[in-house]
Design a protein that fits this description.
Strand order of the largest sheet: 3-2-1-4-6-5
Shape: globular
CATH class: Alpha Beta
Strand content: 5-15%
Helix content: 40-55%
Largest sheet: 6 strands, mixed
Order of helices and strands: EHHEHHEHEEEH
Amino acid sequence: MIRVVLDTNIVVSAYLNEDGLPFFIVKIALARVVQMCASEPVLAEYEELLQRKSYPLDRRRAKLLLDKLRAASTIVKPAGHLSETSDPDDNIFLECAQAARAHYLITGNTNHFPSRWKYTEVVTPRMFINTWKDFYGAAGPR
């Protein structure tokens, strides 16, 4: 099964727009079509952004999404701390991907990350969907 780590921008985009590729990616992760991997720091980052008061988010709906993400995730424990990204806050996603031996780290900010880290390819939502469709056939989004 394909193992993925989702950057926070994918989760927030999915919450805000149910028509986009991030929503589809979260949907297949929650349905366990792909194996979503997360660490406690990654889950804390999701929570911090979804609970941020500056976003126009429904707190109950955000909490429900957070609970679903936690339940669907394989929780990994990174072995150490990295300093490989242009934004230091993004290192937790590489750490998680490395611990999970994830195939993909999906992000809207590929310029913050190396294009590849250990076993993990860093991809945009479109790149992931194209790869996923090739792997699973035409069952992907239209």
